[in-house]
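In response to reviewer comment 3 from the previous cycle, which asked for concrete evidence that the modeling workflow produces usable outputs, we include below a single protein chain processed end to end. The sequence was submitted unchanged, and the resulting C-alpha cells are shown without manual editing.
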Amino acid sequence: MAESSSGPGLTEDLFAEAVMDTSDFAGFPSDSPVIGRPAKTKKPRLHGYTKPVPSPTSSEPTSSSNNSTQGWRLDPSHTIVAAELYGILQALKYLAANRTLPAVICTDSRSSLQLLQQAFPSSYTQLVATIQAHLHLLPTGAVHLQWVPSHAGLHGNEAADKAAKHAATSADQTAQVPFDFSELKSVVHRNIWKFWQAKWTSIRGQFALGMIKPSVHPWAHHMLQTRRFETLFARLRLGTAPLNKSLFQIRQAPSPLCPSCQVPETAHHYLIVCTEYAEARSQLRRQINSQGILVLSLETLLGGDITSSPTWPQTCRAVENFISSTHRFDP
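The workflow returned the following C-alpha cells.
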C-alpha cells in the first residue's frame, strides 16, 4: 500500500493517469467515493494517499455512467466502517443487476478494503462475507476495488458526500443492516451509562456525595500526599468525616453541633462556613483563586466533575494545607 501526501491538484493528476488506459471500466464510487477507471486487475488492491475517514450515518453508490446517486439511511448506532461496507455492497448489487461490467468501485475507507482482503476478518464478518460472496458471483477481474482520498476535489467523491448527508438527515426508512458485535457492545455500554446517570440524577439529592458529584463518571485519579488525606477526602465526600454531625449519629460525640457556631458540623460547614477556621480559609481562598476558581463550594474543593481539570492537583494541595492548618482531624 503506497502512501504519500499531496495537494488536490496532484491527486487529480495521478488519478487521471491511473485511469487513462482503461476506458472500458465503469467508475462506481461508494460512500464518499470518487469516479475513476484505474488499471485492470483481477485482485483488489489498495493504493493512494492517507486520508481521515468521514463520519456519515448513511452510504450511497454513485454511478459515473449515468450520473445517478442513491442513498440509504442507516441506524445512527452503526459505525463509519459499517456504512462504507454497506455502500460497497449496494454498489455490487447495482452492478450485478445492471450488468455494467467491468467496473471499479472507489471508496475512501481504507479500513473497509483491508477487511475485505482478510480471509477471516476480525469484525463486520457478516457484511464482509456478504460482499465477498457477491464478488465471487461476478466474473473474475470484472470488479476492481480502489481506495481514493476523500475531499480531494474529485467530482464523484463530492457528489457521494452530498448524497450521504442528504440520506443521513432524511426521513427515509432505516436500512436493515446487521450490527457487528463491537457496535452492539458500544450500544449496550452507552445505554447502561444513560440508565445509571438517570437513576443517579433522580436520587442524588438524598446523599452527601450527590450534592458534590452530578455525574456518574469516575473521578480522575490523583494521588494525594498521604493515605490519611485520601481517606479524609473520601469521607468528606460521603458525609462520614469525623465531624460532630456524623460522630453524633454513631454515638461518638455528645452533640451534632459545631462548638463555635452552634449549628450542625458538616463537611460544608467545616470547609465553607465555620468562623473558627476563617484565617485558614482565607489562605485557602487565595490559593484556589490563583488557579482561576472564584467560588468556594464542596464541588470545587472536593472534586465533583472537575477532577480532570489541570488545576485540580493544585486545588488538592490547597485543601490539604487547609486541613493541616485547622488541626481538626489530628489524632
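DSSP finds 13 helices and seven strands in the chain. We consider this sufficient to address the reviewer's concern, and the full set will be provided in the supplementary archive.
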